[in-house]
Design a protein that fits this description.
The structure is a single chain. The chain has helices at about 5-20, 25-35, 40-45, 55-65, 85-95; strands at about 40, 70-75, 75-80. The protein has one domain (about 5-99): Winged helix-like DNA-binding domain superfamily/Winged helix DNA-binding domain (Arc Repressor Mutant, subunit A, Orthogonal Bundle). The protein is elongated, with a radius of gyration of 15 Å. About 60% of the residues lie in helices and about 15% in strands. Strands 1-3-2 form a 3-stranded antiparallel β-sheet. By secondary structure, it is α+β, with helices and mostly antiparallel strands. Helix 1 (about 5-20) runs antiparallel to helix 4 (about 55-65). The chain is built from 5 helices and 3 strands.
Length: about 100
């Protein structure tokens, strides 16, 4: 793969993270996951917020697309796990440029 294609893919992944972090509720979801041990079911996450179920699942989908959470089906539940390493990756590769 060419360097240009690799750079474009990396930039798109970075843009997905910033898009995910742009919304206050998605940042709150990440904080809740972090402080609750890094793993919660979709229902547990939704119960912490006053928005509708479809809105919560859309937020979780954006976080998943950005690689900030990973989902695992467990029986009838979907369990979301925080990927804090992805946040470290973004901080290390992009935000660190401004230190």
């Amino acid at each position: 793969m060419s360097g240009r294609a690799s750079a474009a893919r990396e930039l798109a992944a970075l843009e997905a993270v910033f898009k995910a972090l742009a919304h206050a509720q998605r940042r709150q979801i990440l904080l809740v996951l972090h402080y609750r041990g890094g793993e919660m079911s979709a229902g547990e996450i939704a119960s912490r917020f006053e928005c509708s179920w479809p809105t919560t699942t859309r937020h979780l989908g954006v976080l998943e697309e950005a690689g900030l959470v990973h989902v695992e089906p467990r029986g009838r539940e979907r369990v979301y796990r925080l990927d804090a390493a992805r946040l470290d990756d973004v901080a290390g590769r992009w935000l660190a440029r401004f230190r």
